[in-house]
Amino acid sequence: MSGQGLGDKEGDNLDAIHDITVAYPQNIPQTEKHLLNGNFPKEIHFHVQRYPIETVPTSKEELQLWCRKRWEEKEERLRRFYEGGKCFSAAGQGIVPPCKSELRVLAVKCISLLYWTAFPLGMLALLYLYSFAQWYFAAMVVFFVVQQKIFGGLELIELACHRYFKKQQKFHGTKTKSN
């Protein structure tokens, strides 16, 4: 986190910042090539810390210091993880959601593999067989390229819409209160 974009705090666009630390106790995939070769991590540990936006500094200097402190905490957390018991919790026990089981994880992996094999093949077949799909695909490519060039991306359009509707709510809220 660099702190850029947090100037929108006043716009009521953020309610919190989540600091997520990820650690791999066994094999650490370094590149996509490792994943393509089947070198998946056997375990993935997450540490999630939520910071309400009210607790985050607003000045640039304080925000940079705050971010630097979070990075130091993250580095210390990872150092303790890899030197210690390969766990983020102080008790030395990983917190595993009760809904997880090996069978469920295997089922999700199999369904995901089937979906991500069938979906691209289905889309290619649609594009090959149907002119409507070809026109739709071409129109979507043009739309996304044009909006990226003009507006800078869909997320900026979404943010502008959010701000607009927030203003409208505030305007109509004050208008009805004054009547």
Notable characteristics:
179 residues, mainly alpha, two-stranded antiparallel ribbon, 5 helices, 58% helix, disordered N terminus
How would you briefly describe this protein structure?
The protein has 179 residues and is mainly alpha-helical.
Topology (elements, then pairings):
Blueprint: E1 16-23, H1 32-36, E2 45-52, H2 60-83, H3 102-129, H4 131-151, H5 154-178
Antiparallel strand pairs: 1-2
Q: pLDDT below 50 for ≥5 consecutive residues: which ranges? A: 1-5
**What is the arithmetic mean of pLDDT?**
82
Radius of gyration, in angstroms, nearest whole number: 23 Å
- Walk across the major sheet and give the strand order: 1-2
Biggest sheet record: 2 strands, antiparallel
The separation of the N and C termini measures 45 Å
Order of helices and strands: EHEHHHH
Query: What share of the residues lie within helices?
Result: 55-70%
Task: Note the beta-strand portion.
Answer: 5-15%
Q: What general form does the structure show? A: flat
